[in-house]
Amino acid sequence: MRLVRQDDEGRAKRVPRLGALSMACAALALLALAALAAACSGGGVPGTLGSQSLKAPQGRALDGYPGKPPSYAQRAAAATRWGLAKVPLVAAPPAKRPAITFRKGFGVPGGAGLPPVFTSVPTKDKVVFLTIDDGTDKDPAFLRMMSELHVPYTAFLSDTVVDDDDDYFRGMRDLGVTLDNRTLHDPYLPGMSYEEQKNEICGMQDVMKEQFGRRPTVFRPPQGAYDKETLRAARDCGIAYVPLWNEEIYPDHWEYREWDRRLHPGDIVLAHFKGSSDWDVTMSDLVRRFLKKVTDDGYAVGRLEDYL
């Protein structure tokens, strides 16, 4: 069994507290500005990548989320409550889902028919995808923040974390978040036998069905490490896609896979369920910094499953 060598050729202030009247005025002003901007530009946010003109996809609440989507004014008020100077852009589903293939250098010999491994989604829209992996922090404030802002994300879970607090993740599911597979015990998979890897992946499929009502079709190997047996086992457990990531966020910095150290359309971003028990910030603080950066850069946050 051969560990895949991931050959990356190519791209290697808080807001002051406002009084009730000031907050209402601020929200109305933001709403008026948004309407004016939409009228002038068709709702897009212009940007550039080299010589290519890009724009953010339409910023609105996602249709798939349960309940009535909040209005822009409600999201503007929520942004102020959560310390954001700008309302995060949220991408609508694409008109047509792109074809997902292996990223160059991430394939395996004889990989035809196996779930593709990729670090970004092929799109020209200025959209990125927030994915969150296992960790010890189960921050209720984070759930409230993302629900009030109506920002989508995808969670990848192992049984070692789900068993610790499955009610937290059921609440996340009930808010419209997609929960996906990250094995039973979070092992380093390369070098394990096919049967061992299949037990890890299919076993977690059973847990996900029992706890959350569905078997995922999306899987992320722990540490992003895999070999051909990993992908064979994933396919045989009903997995269709194996997304990794192009950026990883920490409290004080971002780590980039690409040489130019910046976001690109379709990038998948990795965070963890970690907070004050691991770092000197909460999980809400960490994701707030993510939202500030992507919004300042003109990117909307999309739901990964809408593109698969």
Which labels suit this protein?
alpha/beta, 8-stranded mixed beta sheet, single chain, 14% strand, disordered N terminus, two-stranded antiparallel ribbon
Give a quick rundown of the structure.
31% of the residues lie in helices and 14% in strands.
End-to-end Cα distance, whole Å, is 28 Å
In terms of DSSP E residues, the strand content is 5-15%
Number of helices: 8
Q: Which range best describes the helical content: under 10%, 10-25%, 25-40%, 40-55%, 55-70% or over 70%? A: 25-40%
Number of E-type strands: 12
What is the chain-wise order of helices and strands?
Answer: HEEHEEEHEHHEHHEEEEHE
Radius of gyration of CA atoms, rounded to a whole number: 20 Å
Word description of this protein:
It is built from eight helices and twelve strands. The chain is α/β, with parallel strands linked by helices and 308 residues long. Strands 3, 5, 6, 7, 9, 10, 11 and 12 form an eight-stranded mixed beta sheet that branches. Strands 1-2 form a two-stranded antiparallel ribbon. It has a two-stranded parallel ribbon with strand order 4-8. Helix 1 (20-41) crosses helix 2 and helix 6 (194-212) crosses helix 7. The chain is globular and about 50 Å long. The relative contact order is 0.20.
